[in-house]
Amino acid sequence: MEKTISKRNNLFDVKHLYSTNSLVKISLLSVISYILMLIDPPIPFFPGFLKMDLSDMPALIGTFALGPIAGVIIEFIKNLLHLITRTSTGGVGEFANFLIGSSLIIPSGIFYAKNRKKSTALLGMLLGTILMAIVGGLANYYILIPFYAKVMPLDKIIAWSASANAAIKDLKTLIIYAIVPFNLLKGIIISIFTILIYKKISHLLIRKIN
């Protein structure tokens, strides 16, 4: 990865993000991220409301190519587009998705910005995945599940979740045995796909778009 990354000296410098070149890249990655957000198949052994999408992958790729701020912007635009076109939570789900996605993006970008090597990228994604699981658990405990409990009683949510995982007995076990493992799995899958794809497309992100 270190051979293909941009030679920009400071990935935290936001001045380059105002260029037409960077704005086009951010826009393209944001649209791809939004499209991937719409493709969210359920995962066996997890409650039906937990669905796997790869929409954080373009933001992670943008983070490595343009810096962590660009990655966060991509996360924001993706969720803004979803809020405008597809929301069923009045913005609650999009806000939580932004928090969870950014928790993966920011550590990955910070570590890679300090030392642009594959090893530091891997370390950043590992720490980001762990943080993603923690933030995902907290976001569901305090934001998402309380919101859905207004539509569907909490005991029904627990029963629905228990049908997929018998270890789920209450809200706490739902977080421990479903939400946290799901976000760990999601972070790992996104990281693997990013590693496999980034090297192949990085030249498109690094060179100027005419």
Automatic annotation (TrEMBL):
Belongs to the prokaryotic riboflavin transporter (P-RFT) (TC 2.A.87) family. Pfam families: ECF_trnsprt (PF12822). GO terms for cellular component: plasma membrane. The keyword Repressor does not apply. The chain crosses the membrane at residues 21-39, 59-77, 121-144, 174-198. One of its GO terms (molecular function) is riboflavin transmembrane transporter activity. Probably a riboflavin-binding protein that interacts with the energy-coupling factor (ECF) ABC-transporter complex. It is found in: Cell membrane. Keywords: Cell membrane, Membrane, Transmembrane, Transmembrane helix, Transport. This is Riboflavin transporter.
